[in-house]
Amino acid sequence: MPKLHRAPNVRGSRPPEGRLSRSLEHALARRPLLFEPVPPSVRADPVRAGLHTEALTRLLRGIPRLDAVNVPELVDENHDGRPYYRSGDPRRFARTVAEQAGCDAVVNKVVAHLASASALTEWARETLAQGVRHAVLVGGSSRYIPYSGPTVAEADRICEELFTPAGGLLGNIAIPQRTGEAHRMLAKTRAGARFFTTQILFDATAVLAMVREYGELCTREAVAPGAVLLSVAPLTDEADCEFVRWLGAEVTDEAERRVLEPGAEGAAQRATRLALDLWQEVRARAEQERWPVPLGVNVEQISQRHLLAAAEMLGAFAHAVD
Hints:
The protein has a single domain, classed as TIM Barrel. Helix content is 43%, strand content 16%. The protein has helices at residues 24-28, 46-61, 90-101, 117-129, 152-163, 181-191, 205-220, 238-247, 253-260, 267-289, 307-318; strands at residues 33-36, 68-71, 75-77, 83-85, 104-110, 134-138, 169-174, 193-200, 227-232, 295-300.
């Protein structure tokens, strides 16, 4: 069982030495480690938002290894698919945190909500102009809604022409439980995706099947597979379990019992051990069967109150992914 490591509370303005020497492109082939923080609310007071950013970067500077911050765009949809943005523009936040923590910046963009393909091109150019070179392009939440924006594969093709010459990389979201997901990943890889972050995982069964099939498809079609980053997150109570289920994650009864059972450790520590076990299971199978798909980890902070727990999980994975 890998030992858990707490993230040191490091002060100072300089990132750790060597943090910038490992680019995201280099990392994707060698077990990348990303952290997905919660961006400030669109209505956040500037002072509180600044304190949140300072606390986050102070924790991240104490992590011995981190390849990128992966900042989501928090958006809800109504029944017509119209967006309600809960976070502000994530690009400035991502760039600030990445610069202070000494790692690369990745921003998520829900392309389905854009007005047109031209609007996506404008967003991509603005993103590069703001110093952010990597993006995860995300689709809408329902297959039944006729969104105004491009599909994810279309968005990959549009953005690839802009991001690649600038040294940028594109990623997408993978949903292991979704039927035919490996075939979708192959199509998106052909369109320009270089990596995938999964939904939050609490069981290895579905992701093992997805990664195996994706690797087989890429080998058969002579396509270099993108890296698959297993997304994990600490849970602290029953409300967290219900929240991540609402997000679309599958929390098995066994996983919920293991995390929430009484004991000397807290729920967040047990969630970290569960995530480490999941990672080791997938990694061991991939090495045993020599799958061609590079693997990595994306640690998520699911709410503002989970910052310390998420940083501690990130610290544990910094020692476990190599």
